[in-house]
Specification:
The complex is a heterodimer of chains A (108) and B (121). Chain A is mainly beta and 108 residues long. Chain A has no helices and eleven strands. Chain A starts with a strand and ends with a strand. The chains are: A mainly beta (108), B mainly beta (121).
Chain lengths: 108, 121
């Protein structure tokens, strides 16, 4: 199965700053089948990005995804207070679908 | 609006079985698959398996093969996940999620609220 490694584990930033989360796959993710989710404490994961760069319905344009092959990035252009959460990448190009270990974006 | 409503929390002894339900509404149930994902306390997300609500095709995660069974009841738009021979490390929040992809186990746009299953003696 494809192993996804996210970095950093924790990102300490201030509101208004740019956040960049990396997701590296142990082998190439076919057709850029890579998704990103946001999860806040006690809440359900929320789909942000699919197909590496397509925003899900209702997701603000400050969230963007990029990358292909084995290297993918989630960027939040300007952090809003509600963006402090844990972010997970997930590949669905090969079975089983797998998730990264998560990156916590916390308030500095 | 699309909703997935799961059954309530369960406490089971190790070795027992648990069955979690997931009732869908707000969309055509047979047009999408349902995946199940679990999250141990303080841990990340782990995909468990997928079922097509259209034809009942199933894809299980290898590590759970033989212990998990996914089913659907299209008359009530409900999906079920049964996990047998529970161990303490099965303690987790179990989520059902609407699966948007064209192949078994893709990405998930709507999630149930989660069901905490605690396996403890």
């Amino acid at each position: 199965e494809i192993v996804l490694t996210q970095s950093p584990g924790t990102l300490s930033l201030s509101p208004g700053e740019r956040a960049t989360v990396s997701c590296r796959a142990s082998q190439s993710v076919s057709s850029s089948y890579l998704a990103w989710y946001q999860q806040k404490p006690g809440q359900t994961p929320r789909l942000l990005i699919y197909g590496a760069s397509s925003r899900a319905t209702g997701i603000p344009d400050r969230f963007s995804g990029s990358g292909s092959g084995t290297d993918f990035t989630l960027t939040i252009s300007r952090l809003e207070p509600e963006d402090f959460a844990v972010y997970y990448c997930q590949q669905y190009g090969s079975s089983p679908p797998t998730f990264g270990g998560g990156t916590k974006v916390e308030i500095k | 609006q699309v909703q997935l409503v799961q059954s309530g929390a369960e406490v089971k002894k190790p070795g027992a079985s648990v069955k979690v339900s997931c009732k869908a509404s707000g969309y055509s149930f047979t047009s999408f698959g349902i995946s199940w994902v679990r999250q141990a306390p303080g841990q990340g997300l782990e995909w468990m398996g997928w079922i097509s609500a259209y034809n009942g095709n199933i894809n299980y995660a290898q590590m759970l093969q033989g212990r998990v069974t996914l089913t659907t009841d299209i008359s009530t738009s409900t999906a079920y996940m049964e996990l047998r021979s529970l161990r303490s490390d099965d303690t987790a929040v179990f989520y059902c999620a609407r699966d948007l992809g064209s192949h078994p186990g893709s990405f998930f746009d709507y999630w149930g609220q989660g069901t905490l299953v605690t396996a403890s003696s």
